[in-house]
Amino acid sequence: MTESANWPEGLHPVRGFMSMCHLLVDDQGAVLLDAGLPIDAGRIRRQMEKLGLIPKDLRAIVLTHGHLDHAGSLAWLKAWTGAPIYAHPAEQAHIDGTFRYRGASRWCGRLERVGRALFGYTPAKIDVANATSLRRRFEELCARMDPWTAPCI
């Protein structure tokens, strides 16, 4: 996928198997928004290499929420880059696979359990349970984008 002309400079999409991550790159390094599925780790690595980034250039991983298609590669990325993981503390139960879904949403929990087993998922720990400043920067970038091409946050 090529970068959209409507997207701000420095925002690079990473299309995963069934997910979408974004790299925010500036002269100080990069921030990754979401980590895709466990099988998306290679795509993230290749996009970073394509952009001339090395593992230590990733300053942070910001998680929008802890579902498997957003948190799947967290453990691998943390080990590969050493970047801290920023997320709301309530997402740790999702990342760990211990969140108790209720009602119809129990199907989401069942699908997540199957996905974790199928993809060989390894959970990771949130390092910073307050991603407000990084999320604000991402929201500022998205506010300047065409609403039809803006990533979902």
Characterization of the model:
The structure is a single chain. The protein is of the alpha/beta class. The chain has one domain (11-143): Metallo-beta-lactamase, Chain A (4-Layer Sandwich), CATH 3.60.15.10. Helix content is 35%, strand content 16%. It has a five-stranded mixed beta sheet, with helices on both faces. The model has no long low-confidence stretch (mean pLDDT 86).
Q: What is the CATH-assigned architecture? A: 4-Layer Sandwich
Q: Largest beta sheet, briefly?
A: 5 strands, mixed
Contiguous runs where pLDDT drops below 50 for at least 5 residues: none
The rounded distance between the terminal residues' Cα atoms is 19 Å
Gyration radius, rounded: 15 Å
Strand content: 15-25%
Please name the fourth-level CATH homologous superfamily: Ribonuclease Z/Hydroxyacylglutathione hydrolase-like
* Helix and strand run: EEEHEHHEHHH
CATH class placement: Alpha Beta
Q: With helices defined by DSSP (H or I, 4 residues minimum), what is the helix count? A: 6
Helix content: 25-40%
User: What is the count of β-strands?
Assistant: 5
Strand order of the largest sheet: 1-2-3-4-5
CATH topology: Metallo-beta-lactamase, Chain A
Mean pLDDT over all positions: 86
- The gross shape turns out to be globular
